[in-house]
Structure formats: structure tokens, C-alpha cells
Write a structure and sequence with these properties.
Chain lengths: 132, 444, 257
């Protein structure tokens, strides 16, 4: 090919740069990192099964937001036939007490940002003076 | 090859030169504009990071320079439609050289009108909520609809009228031939194609006129539909439309003068164009004065305390300097220049137009801000002084508009070549025949 | 590739079936949702209103208990400047609140006394009409609600309110909140806020914080639709003022002199 002496090394360099996250993680041993959210000691199950809630908690919370703020409906009928209050702080955070030790573990790993805590105050936030 | 080029360019060489020849002046202009745009971007980033606290706005006066910019830019956008569409419908042949430059003004400045509102939002990351959760009771939604429609229709008008010239550039060949070939949509200049194009442009021109009137009426409704003193006025709809055409046409004169000088288009954009638009502008000055007068005399005669409090703040109070300055710029300076033929030269009309454009920005400001100082509630004493962020963003918007405009002239001819040629070849006989048809038949 | 009409219909039908699978599943599975409580019907049985007995309020000069209570439990920041202040409830001199009342020849001693102002929770609220996203709306029980999640900060509602009841967050409010109440969220910069008649307290059967905090019992809150309620009793047989009633907003805050 024309300019092969320039193209092939350039191509190798480019592929190397683009795939650098992959082989860097493999080499430095970080590839095996699995986020370890701290589970509550006393409760064994969430309001929904773990598999469901792991995937759908974002949609669930958004539905709760719509329902509570715009429709005034606070009661959530879970699939286990129990009724819960649609309240992030009083329902979810009553078990998962520390956001940094639970929610953030997976969110930081996956690069997920949410704006919930721009306004809402999680239980340990006031104690740790983290509001300001 | 050279023959072909000669055949395409023929006698209209000045119309193509600005595409290929880039002088030192262009580079200097673009550099200065780019610097101002970057400064405006820096100002906006400051605002995005810190919130609207960096502006001079307050709990009492929460709409200021950005909303003024919004109304002002949308107002200027009426230029293109008027000069291109209305004059085309009225069969005014002198619109030929200036139709594209005015349409371009419309299309580009509309984007900054919309941009100004988005810059003003407290949560710009949620700007699409206005579409997702649209509440059609709100005049802002009416704005969204009509401005979108206007931008679409104007862009189509601009593009349709551009096609034959793109085809000319494609035929000239060169490095950009592929670009023009794609955009020309297979234009060959055949009779059938010309007929279709004329029909399409004609239809679009007729469609865009009611849209243009709706747009600024709806912008005025943002204010007129509230129950605030001096905003809740039935005259706002027509007043704003008149003001828009007024400021728009004035800004087109400025654009015309700059392009004429910079690109040596003296033989195409002639004193007669400035004269004709100047006469129209004079009529608009008087019409604008009529509306202003009607509004203010109604207020004075009604003598309602809340209204008069704001009125006096404009005439002799806090806002008096701005009010009288805008009146001078919109009426006192332009009228004698435009009315007296001796002064209605190119230089005269340009001076009058610059005065009008500045005055109309102030007019929007003087409509929006004083009402906010004396809403039907206790006066709380806050005063509005715009900060560097607001001025920088205004400068950035205007600079970006000029920059985009300049870049456009590097790609396409700013004076429509095919319309000039159509004027030369067909319009002269067509108009002559038309006039003959008005007169009694020969031989009777 | 030549496609016969029949084949096209077959493919289109399968595609439609496939595309409708997820939404169809969603709709079918949503059929057994719990009954919303409260329903719009239960909400509509009430119409909340507030009466302010001015003479009782003036007995305690310089008192700001109601304002402090409201701003404390709702995490209203104290920005300290006239430019950026946020207030859900505040006072203004009488002759500025009721400019239509005659004082030129009937000088009264209460002309300059402070009158408590808050969102009037109008029955025909102009602000609700102007909001482009319906971030503010009128609930069946009469409260004009704010959804801080949806507000885009255009401030049109502020332009529409003839009473100036709404405030805007010009910057991040959190550094300016004196003592955070973890029971109620804060707001971000860029959204509009106003008094919400303590909706979150009403849900728990409590009265608004300002009403509870008033030592002189000058604020009376209740259901205007209940003929036997205290507020109806208080408003009976009296000359009652509202702010600018001629505008047709039908405010639900009443002033008793």
C-alpha cells in the first residue's frame, strides 16, 4: 500500500491507545474489581427481589417521584403484597443507612451520576456536616 | 474550461469574487469576531457554573438583558421575510439583489433569539422539558411552536432560492464541487425545473408572511397575557410586529451597507435600494411613533395609580435617561434623515438605521424592566444594573451571528446571481408587458 | 432485493407485534395498581384557606415566629441581600399591601404596621397558566403546588404572579441554610419556590408551621368547604380583605382587621 511504512505503525499505535483501558486494567490487576455495597445487617430482603430492583430501581424511584409529588399517592403495593411508603429517605434509606457505603459503591464504579442528592438529604448527611 | 468559466460567471464577476478571494480584512474581522465569541462563551460558562447570580437580576427584576435580547433578535428576524417574501409577492423588482442577504439575516438571527431564552433559563439542563411536558396554555409554548415554524419555513425559503446558484458553483468545478453537487439536488436549469422552483418559492413566500406576523405577536403575548401594569395591553401584538419590521429592516440596511463596501458590490446594491428601503423605513418610523403615542396617551388619560407610577418612572424617574435616549434614537434622529431626500443617501440611511437598531434594543429594555419595578406590590427598592456577564453574552451572540454570516459568504454568493440574471433577461420585458396591460389597448 | 407486497405486509405485521410487546406488557402489568390515596375526590372535599387576624398579630411587635418557623422547616436559605433573597412568608407595611385603602384623609395608626404576606393559593392562579412545563399546578384541594423536579427556571410564573409571592434560587442555596432540616429537601439553583401551605404537614394531619408557631393565634387555617370549621366561623360577619381581588385571582388568604 502507499505510505505503508507510516500507516502500519500509526495504526498499531492508534489501536494500542484506544484499547489502553483494557490492557491497563488487566496488567494492574484492577480488572477483577467488583463493587461491594455494604448490605444492611438486619434486613434480608428489599421491597422487591434483588434481581428486579438492581435493574429497575431508577425507574421505580422516578415513578415514585411522579406519584408522590404530582398525584399525592404515597402507598406502593410491592410484588410481595406488602404496602410501603414511597419515600426514598424513610423507606429505602431506613435500611441502607449510609449512601456512601451502599449506593455510591456501584454508582461510582459504573460512572452513574444522579441529581437526587442535590436536593434530598440522606440520613447521615447532616451528622457528617456534609450539607454545605 | 476557461470558456465554460467565462460563460457561467459572465459579467457578474463581483458576485463570485468574495467566495474565492479572501483579503486581509476578512481574516482580521473573523479573528476579532472569534475572540468576542470566545469571550461570550467564557461569560456563559461562568454563569453555568455559578448560577444566574452572576447577572444583575434580582427577586424584583428577574427578567432583563437576556429577555430583551430574545425579543430584539426575534424582532430583527422579520427583516428577511419582509424584504424577500413581501416584496416578492408585491412584484417589486428592486428586491432582487438584497433578497438573499435579508433571508440569511432572518435564519441566523432566529437561532440567537431562541438561544437567548435558553441562556436565561435557571435550569438549562432541563430545557427539553418544555417540549416533553408542554403546557399549551402557556404563551411560551406558543412561542416555541411559532418560532420553530418560522425558522423552518424561512430556512426552506433561503435554501430554495439558493439552489440555482449552488448549481452554478457546481458547474464551475474545483475542490468544492462535490459539496455543491450534493446541495444542488440535480438542478439543470431546465424550464420545467424553473417553473417548479418559482411555484415553490412563491408558495413559501406567501406562507411565511402570516407566520412572520404570528411570531412577534406571540412573543408580545408573553408580556401582554400577564396582568402586570403596562404589559397587559391589547396594543402589544401589533406594536411588537411593527417594531420588529422596523428594527429588522433597519438592520438589513446596515448589513447591506457593510457587504456592499466589503465585497465591492456597488454596481449591484445601488443607492436606489437604500432610497427605497429608506422611504419604507420612514413610513415605519412614523407608524412606530403612532403606536407609541397611542399607547402612552391611553395610559396618561386613564391615570390609574399603578400604571402612572411606572409611566412616570420612565418619563422622569429612574428610567428616564433610557426612555428619552431610545425615543431620540428611534424617532428624532431617523425621521429627518429619512424624510428629506437630500439626506436619504446611503450614508444617511445607514446612520438612521444604526440609530434605529440601538434605539429598538433600548425600547425592548424599557418595555420589560420598568414594569417589574412596580408590580402591584410594595416596592422593594432593587435596581437593575446588568453585569459584565450579560453584556459579554450579548456581544458574543452578535459576534457569532456576524461570524456565521461571514462564513456563509465564503461558500455562497450573497447576491442571488440567478435572480439578477432573471431580472436582466426576463423581468424587463415582463414588467413592460404588465404596464402595457394596465393601459388601454393600442388602436382604440 | 425484490419484495412482494405480501412479504412486506408479513414483515410489517411481525415488526408491529414485536414493537408492541414491551408497551403492551407494561400496560397489562399496570392493571392491578393500588388505589391512589388520597384520590382527587377526597382531595376535592377540602379547600384550604388561611385567615390572618391583623390586630392579634400586631399585639407582639417585632415578632417573626411564623416566618422563622416556616423558613426553618423548609430549609429556606438566608442570602442576606435584597437582590437574591428567598422568602416564603414575610411582612410589608399596611399601606403598601393595600394601596387602594384610603389614608390621605383617614390617617390610621396601623398604616405602617406589618402585614403578613405569602402565596395566596389563588383559585384562579395566573402562575399556573404561564408555566411552560406545568411545574406548578393547582391541586383539587386548592393548593398551588410546586414540582422542583420539573421547573426549568424560566421565571414566567414570577412574571405572572401579581402579588410577588415567588422567589428564585439565583445560586446554590445550600451554603446559606442556617440549620438544615433533614426531614425536608433543599432546592437546587435555578428553580422557583414559594409557600406550599405545608403540604407535607397536611398529609400527616398537622397544621402549617406558621399557624402552629404563632403565639397570639393570629393565623387561622382550615377547610373553607366545611361550614363548621374555625376559619369559616372567624370569617363570618366581618369585613374581610384580600389582596387585589379585582384581578379575579380569587385568593384564599383573608385579612381581618
Amino acid at each position: 500500500m502507499y505510505d505503508g511504512k507510516k500507516i502500519i505503525p500509526g495504526l498499531i499505535l492508534f489501536v494500542g491507545l484506544v484499547t489502553s483501558p483494557l490492557w491497563y486494567n488487566a496488567v494492574s490487576g484492577k480488572a477483577g474489581y467488583v463493587p461491594k455495597p455494604e448490605l444492611p445487617a438486619d434486613k434480608k430482603e428489599c421491597i422487591e427481589p434483588k434481581a428486579y430492583i438492581r435493574i429497575n430501581h431508577k425507574v421505580l424511584l422516578e415513578d415514585w417521584k411522579e406519584s408522590v409529588v404530582r398525584n399525592g399517592v404515597r402507598i406502593y403495593k410491592a410484588s410481595n403484597k406488602k404496602n410501603y411508603n414511597m419515600d426514598l429517605n424513610r423507606t429505602c434509606m431506613s435500611c441502607h443507612k449510609d449512601k456512601t457505603k451502599f449506593c455510591d459503591q456501584c454508582h461510582n464504579y459504573a460512572g452513574v451520576t444522579n441529581k437526587c442528592w442535590d436536593c434530598h438529604i440522606y440520613p447521615t448527611q447532616v451528622k457528617e456536616q456534609k450539607i454545605k | 474550461m476557461v470558456d465554460k468559466e467565462h460563460k457561467i460567471i459572465a459579467e457578474d464577476a463581483p458576485l463570485f469574487e468574495h467566495i474565492w478571494k479572501t483579503g486581509k480584512g476578512f481574516y482580521i474581522t473573523v479573528s476579532i469576531l472569534a475572540a468576542l465569541v470566545l469571550w461570550g462563551v467564557y461569560a456563559y460558562v461562568t454563569q453555568y457554573l455559578n448560577g444566574l447570580t452572576v447577572t444583575g437580576l434580582s427577586r424584583q427584576i428577574f427578567w432583563g438583558v437576556y429577555i430583551t435580547n430574545f425579543v430584539f433578535f426575534i424582532g430583527i428576524s422579520h427583516a428577511g421575510t419582509f424584504i424577500s417574501a413581501v416584496l416578492r409577492v408585491l412584484k417589486a423588482e428592486w428586491r432582487r439583489p438584497i433578497s438573499r442577504l435579508s433571508e440569511l439575516t432572518t435564519v441566523f438571527i432566529l437561532m440567537f433569539g431562541v438561544g437567548s431564552v435558553l441562556i436565561d433559563l435557571g435550569r438549562p439542563d432541563r430545557m427539553l422539558y418544555a417540549i416533553r411536558y408542554a403546557n399549551f396554555q402557556s404563551p411560551l409554548l406558543w412561542d416555541v411552536c411559532s418560532i420553530t415554524m418560522y425558522l423552518t419555513v424561512s430556512s426552506i425559503c433561503l435554501y430554495l432560492a439558493l439552489i440555482p446558484d449552488i448549481a452554478l458553483l457546481r458547474d464551475l468545478g474545483g475542490r468544492r464541487e462535490w459539496f455543491y453537487r450534493i446541495l444542488s439536488l440535480g438542478w439543470t436549469g431546465a424550464e420545467e425545473q424553473h417553473r417548479r422552483l418559482e411555484k415553490a418559492i412563491g408558495a413559501m413566500s406567501i406562507l411565511v408572511i402570516p407566520v412572520m406576523i404570528t411570531v412577534h405577536t406571540v412573543v408580545s403575548f408573553v408580556f401582554a397575557m400577564t396582568i402586570q401594569p403596562l404589559w397587559h395591553s391589547a396594543i402589544f401584538g401589533p406594536y411588537f410586529v411593527v417594531g420588529a419590521i422596523f428594527s429588522g429592516v433597519a438592520s438589513v440596511i446596515v448589513v447591506m451597507a457593510i457587504l456592499r463596501k466589503a465585497y465591492h458590490l456597488e454596481s449591484y446594491i445601488k443607492p436606489i435600494h437604500f432610497n427605497n428601503i429608506g422611504i419604507f423605513l420612514m413610513a415605519m418610523t412614523l407608524l412606530w411613533f403612532y403606536f407609541t403615542f397611542a399607547e402612552n396617551i391611553t395610559i396618561i388619560y386613564g391615570n390609574e395609580p399603578v400604571h402612572m407610577a411606572i409611566f412616570w418612572s420612565k418619563i422622569s424617574g429612574k428610567f428616564a435617561p433610557l426612555f428619552w435616549l431610545h425615543f431620540t434614537l428611534c424617532f428624532v434622529i431617523p425621521l429627518p434623515i429619512l424624510a428629506i431626500k437630500k439626506y436619504r443617501t446611503i450614508r444617511g440611511t445607514v446612520i438612521a438605521s444604526i440609530s434605529i437598531v440601538l434605539g429598538m434594543w433600548l425600547e425592548r429594555f424599557v418595555i420589560i424592566v420598568p414594569t417589574l419595578t412596580r408590580q402591584r406590590m410594595p416596592v422593594e427598592g432593587a435596581f437593575y444594573i446588568p453585569t459584565w456577564v450579560e453584556w459579554s453574552i450579548l456581544a458574543g451572540c452578535i459576534s457569532l451571528f456576524m461570524l456565521l454570516y461571514a462564513l456563509f459568504t465564503k461558500l455562497f454568493p450573497i447576491v442571488p446571481v440567478w435572480e439578477i440574471r432573471e431580472g436582466r433577461e426576463k423581468a424587463v420585458t415582463a414588467v413592460s408587458d404588465r404596464i402595457k396591460s394596465y393601459l388601454p389597448e393600442q388602436g382604440t | 432485493m425484490e419484495l412482494s407486497r405480501r412479504t412486506l405486509f408479513k414483515i410489517a405485521g411481525l415488526t408491529l407485534l414485536g414493537l408492541s410487546a414491551k408497551p403492551g406488557w407494561k400496560i397489562l402489568s399496570a392493571l392491578d395498581q393500588p388505589e391512589p390515596s388520597p384520590t382527587p375526590e377526597t382531595l376535592a372535599k377540602k379547600k384550604w384557606g388561611m385567615a390572618i387576624e391583623l390586630k392579634k398579630c400586631w399585639q407582639d411587635e417585632g415578632c417573626k415566629d411564623c416566618i422563622d418557623a416556616c423558613h426553618r422547616i423548609h430549609n429556606v436559605p438566608d442570602l442576606g441581600t435584597l437582590k437574591e433573597e428567598i422568602k416564603w412568608i414575610w411582612t410589608s407595611p399596611y399601606d403598601k399591601v393595600f394601596p387602594e385603602h384610603e389614608f390621605e384623609v383617614t390617617e390610621e395608626d396601623y398604616q405602617h404596621k406589618p402585614v403578613l404576606l405569602l402565596c395566596n393559593q389563588c383559585d384562579d392562579p395566573p402562575c399556573v397558566r404561564y408555566c411552560p412545563t406545568r411545574a406548578t399546578w393547582k391541586r383539587e384541594d386548592g393548593i398551588v403546588m410546586m414540582d422542583f423536579h420539573r421547573c426549568i427556571g424560566c421565571r414566567y410564573c414570577m412574571a405572572g404572579c401579581p402579588y410577588g409571592s415567588r422567589s428564585f434560587n439565583w445560586r446554590d442555596p445550600r451554603p446559606f441554610i442556617k440549620k438544615v432540616n433533614p426531614e425536608f429537601p433543599t432546592r437546587t439553583r435555578g428553580v422557583v419556590e414559594k409557600c406550599n401551605f405545608c403540604v407535607e404537614r397536611l398529609e400527616q394531619g398537622l397544621i402549617p408551621a406558621c399557624v402552629e408557631a404563632c403565639k397570639e393565634k393570629a393565623l387561622i387555617f382550615g377547610n373553607l368547604k366545611d361550614q363548621q370549621s374555625e376559619i369559616r366561623r372567624v370569617l363570618q360577619n366581618k369585613v374581610v380583605y384580600q389582596r387585589q381581588p379585582e384581578l379575579g385571582t380569587k385568593p384564599k388568604v383573608f385579612y381581618i382587621l
